[in-house]
Write a structure and sequence with these properties.
Blueprint: H1 6-11, H2 14-36, H3 44-49, E1 53-55, E2 59-61, H4 63-80, H5 86-107, H6 118-147
Antiparallel strand pairs: 1-2
Helix pairs in contact: 2-4, 2-5, 2-6, 4-5, 5-6
Length: about 160
């Protein structure tokens, strides 16, 4: 086990923390969702005609929605593996959730075979804002540090 060095803290940027926290949260919610509803409806009518399950009594879900959560979690955790990937990952995930939120708002979740409600849309919008905000904030901080001649990624490790 290694000791936490001063340079290690800089490696845990806001973007990277967003990716880890959102990834782990989505994994937990998806696991709960699969335990409640693992159905994979094959048409929008089937989504509308199936009694939905609710994660924590609030978030509407089905198998497709849970699978999307697992894939999103894998994407986030994959980008979080390397500090230098965090900004790209957070901005990508934020942009992805802007598209998800807008698509579901305009066409309805059942169009994409997802059971989704307004509470889900709050989660989707929060993931969009969180990704874009932490990615931009981390990029801004990095550009200020580079402009000042500070490169935290090359801090020597013992």
């Amino acid at each position: 086990m290694t000791r936490l060095e001063a340079g290690d803290v800089a490696r845990w940027s806001a973007a990277r923390l967003y990716l880890v926290i959102s990834g782990l949260t989505l994994l937990v919610l998806s696991a709960i969702g699969f335990s409640l509803d693992a159905s994979f409806p094959t048409s929008p009518e089937a989504v509308r005609n199936t009694e939905p399950a609710y994660i924590l009594g609030l978030l509407e879900t089905n198998g497709w929605h849970n699978l999307a959560g697992v894939l999103s979690a894998a994407l986030a955790l994959g980008f979080a593996l390397r500090p230098e990937w965090a900004i790209t990952g957070a901005l990508f995930k934020g942009a992805l959730y802007v598209i998800v939120t807008a698509s579901i708002a305009l066409a309805g979740g059942e169009t994409f075979l997802l059971a989704s409600n307004d509470a889900d849309q709050v989660v989707h919008a929060s993931l969009a804002v969180g990704g874009l905000a932490t990615g931009a904030a981390t990029a801004s901080r990095r550009s200020r540090n580079v402009g000042a001649g500070v490169n935290r990624s090359t801090v020597p490790r013992r």
